[in-house]
Amino acid sequence: QPVLAVVGRPNVGKSTLVNRLLGRREAVVQDQPGVTRDRVSYDALWNGRRFTVVDTGGWEPDAKGLQASVASQAEMAMRTADAVLLVVDGKVGATGTEEAVARVLRRSKCPVLLVANKVDDQRGAGDIHDLWSLGLGEPMPMSGLHGRGSGDVLDRVLEALPETPRDSFGASSGPRKVALVGKPNVGKSSLLNQLTGEDRSVVHDVAGTTVDPVDSLVELDNQVWRFVDTAGMRKRVNTASGTEYYAWLRTKAAIEAAEVAIVLIDGSEPITEQDLRVITMVVEAGRALVIAYNKWDLVDDDRRRQLEKEIDRDLIRVRWAERVNVSARTGRSVAKLAPTLRTALESWDTRVPTGRLNGWLNELVAAYPPPARGGRQPKIKFATQAQSRPPTLVLFTTGFLEAGYRRFLERKFRETFGFTGSPVRISVRVRE
Ligand code: GDP
């Protein structure tokens, strides 16, 4: 769904306004420097249309000062969102910071809306004309506190947002691409048949334009997905034929062609080395991951307990992946696949704004500094999420960070920002 990014200086009442737009009060977050928030984006619904509101967070002055940090937030918003809402304190008017951000936003290809917040009464509405000077069109008066004007703002937001979201990273367009993978006989073709059964969905074969693999378009939960390289599965070729080597190549290619992989594991049998290898392939390829335990109709209590143990032993490193217990035979829980795919892809697509990332990291590192090596204490100077798909953090440090500490950072990063279903990469750039 399309994304609206809300940007503004701290204390302009951004959070109140976001909550007002979302129509809920419990989401109130503090607009103070250094306050870690656990939510970055929110789902909004207005006039029957859904969109995502991304709150870019309090802008904290970084090394280059408030204006530079604000400008980089605006850049980020422009690059990732389908429309940007700049919030200004209507009582204060445009400051140098807003002028700096407006300069950035005027170059934006996506629509920019200007909201003057804290305009609580008619009298205040007269004072906002100065904001025309920002060159972002007509300022819309609103009161986050009272709700005054919020309906008009939302109407304008809907006008500005495209029906279909722009793809910010160019990785895909059209239906999201799914690889259904797993070792032979785990039930891939059975599951695909279950998902595409006549009564459940419309299936089309999409002839690959240049190469021979054939994908299937599958409708699940009111969304069309593209299951990649399903030709062999649907024809139900004997999986025992063909060399194992070929099967692996094909699995690898399917994973690479996809954005998210469902790794199917036979829940009724012990987890094998082959299962783990498929999971490793997905993680190494940097794709989002859902783990589905199939043949659940054959799983009794004993087996279930045993499986939990196997998972604890073998799959701890991908505990961030959601798991679904399904039966391709009975159709049990296959409906849960679509929501988990969505969650995983959402994480995979997410980009945490630099200001927020550093606010979080500074607090964390102050409380848990990286261990010293060779008598020297590495300092983490700055972090940025250089990429999504998969989310990739780059840390600029003065020294080497141990693997254990990196894992700790990853775990804390996930605790704070989520990222269920997506691998997270951390790369460290050492600069003296
Ligand atoms: P693939 O090689 O991964 O495509 O696996 P298949 O779909 O061909 O399934 C292998 C075998 O497992 C077949 O005999 C299926 O009937 C059986 N099977 C698949 N899914 C289930 C399930 O959920 N429950 C049970 N009991 N059997 C299943």
Automatic annotation (TrEMBL):
* Function, as annotated: GTPase that plays an essential role in the late steps of ribosome biogenesis.
Q: Which Gene3D superfamilies match?
A: 3.30.300.20, P-loop containing nucleotide triphosphate hydrolases
Protein name in the entry = GTPase Der
Organism superkingdom: Bacteria
Q: Using the record's annotation, list all stretches that form the EngA-type G domain.
A: 2-165, 176-349
Pfam families the UniProt entry points to = KH_dom-like (PF14714), MMR_HSR1 (PF01926)
Q: Which UniProt keywords apply?
A: GTP-binding, Nucleotide-binding, Repeat, Ribosome biogenesis
The UniProt annotation places GTP 1 binding at: 8-15, 55-59, 117-120
SUPFAM superfamilies recorded: P-loop containing nucleoside triphosphate hydrolases
Which species does the entry assign this protein to?
A: Saccharopolyspora halophila
Q: How does this protein assemble? A: Associates with the 50S ribosomal subunit.
**Which PROSITE patterns does UniProt cross-reference here?**
G_ENGA
The record ties this protein, via PANTHER family, to:
GTPASE DER (PTHR43834)
Family stated for the protein in its record: Belongs to the TRAFAC class TrmE-Era-EngA-EngB-Septin-like GTPase superfamily. EngA (Der) GTPase family.
Query: Which of this chain's residues are annotated to bind GTP 2?
Result: 182-189, 229-233, 294-297
